[in-house]
Design a protein that fits this description.
There is one protein chain. By secondary structure, the protein is of the alpha/beta class. Helix content is about 25%, strand content about 20%. The protein has a 3-stranded parallel β-sheet with strand order 1-4-5, with helices on one face. The protein has a two-stranded antiparallel sheet with strand order 2-3. Helix 2 links the parallel strand 4 and strand 5 (about 75).
Length: about 100
């Protein structure tokens, strides 16, 4: 399967205001995604970081994923649409995995 995983509030969180360099990992959720990777699924992390502001968060995000031990095949930063609600027949919350 091709699995797309959001980053913020899915595998990391913030204490207070959202400031990407200060994101804190959620090890239990990262382990769930790593398991999907190890089972042979194609993992793409994607994020709206920079979509609205135009700031390039690629290197910081790559560094965070490496530091947190995230296993993945692809990373897509700044191309995720800026939305408040996603309605899709194929979506799951991390808690459902």
């Amino acid at each position: 399967m091709k699995v797309y995983v959001d980053i913020d509030e899915t595998i990391c969180y913030y204490e207070g205001k959202r400031n990407y360099p200060e994101a804190l990992p959620m090890p239990e959720n990262i382990a769930k995604v790593n398991k999907l990777y190890e089972e042979g699924n194609e993992i793409t992390y994607y994020t709206a970081r920079g979509t609205v502001t135009g700031i390039d968060w690629l290197e910081i995000t790559k560094s965070q994923l490496k530091k947190w031990g995230c296993k993945y095949h692809k990373l897509d930063v700044g191309n995720k649409p800026d939305y408040d609600l996603l309605i899709c027949d194929k979506t799951k919350r991390i808690e459902e995995i």
